[in-house]
Specification:
alpha+beta; two-stranded antiparallel ribbon
């Protein structure tokens, strides 16, 4: 559950330090990337899909996702996916770049980034355009839980859909793949828990089709099924 993975370990800004300030790339002017144009998850945010052609492409992608019943949670443990935010999950973007996954994601999606004094990795303050609620969050380490990193396809959900039988290396990839990770409002993420789209969708209705696409992209990449109810809800968000 992503709620258990709060932004722990983020070090405080050292008193008297002079942290670097850096814009968050493509999102600095308020824009976010469409999931259809961001198949690797390396671009910031999650832009709404509103055009007819994009929504048609979204439905076509979602239609390719396999379905099956959700299995038991027996044996699930976060440690089965490696330690949280490891930089050594080979096979995913940002791996082995000297910065842990959590901070990579804060840098990808945050704006007006401030770093721990002497570090170009550890983010201690930023502005986040939260895709799930549509609000702007002025995040500071002192209130770390206000922003959490959401696994779009929750790890427990994946376990029940077959990742319990994957090699450990593949589970570690899923847990650290930027395609499956979004910094979002902490309270909203906590309400999601390990739900699939049939039970939980982002509060912002305008982003729900894009969220369904991202969920489908992860499922396709990892050859993972979703429940029939989840697939039906995903299609519905994109006009299907």
């Amino acid at each position: 559950m992503a709620a258990a993975l709060l932004l722990t370990g983020c070090e405080a800004l050292e008193e008297g330090g002079s942290p670097a300030v850096r814009d968050g790339g493509a999102q600095a002017d308020g824009r976010a990337a469409s999931p259809l144009d961001n198949p690797k998850g390396v671009e910031p945010g999650l832009a709404p899909l509103t055009g007819g052609a994009d929504r048609t492409a979204a439905r076509e992608l979602i239609a390719t996702v396999r379905t099956k019943g959700r299995g038991p949670r027996t044996g699930y443990d976060r440690d089965e996916f490696g330690y949280a935010w490891k930089d050594t999950a080979d096979g995913v973007p940002f791996a082995r770049n000297g910065c842990d996954t959590r901070n990579d994601l804060l840098q990808r999606d945050g704006q007006e980034l401030r770093f721990k004094s002497g570090s170009d990795c550890v983010v201690v303050a930023m502005t986040l355009a939260d895709p799930y609620t549509g609000k702007s969050i002025e995040w500071r380490k002192a209130k770390a839980a206000e922003v959490q990193i959401d696994h779009v396809v929750p790890l427990s959900y994946s376990w029940q859909m077959g990742s319990s039988r994957w090699p450990v290396a593949k589970r570690e990839q899923l847990a650290n793949d930027p395609l499956n990770l979004l910094p979002v409002d902490g309270g909203t993420n906590s309400s999601k828990s390990d739900s699939g789209p049939a039970a939980w969708l982002p509060p912002s209705k305008r982003i729900r089709c894009a969220y369904a696409v991202r969920f489908a992209q992860v499922a396709v990449k990892y050859e993972m099924a979703v429940t029939a109810a989840d697939k039906e809800m995903m299609l519905r968000q994109c006009g299907g």
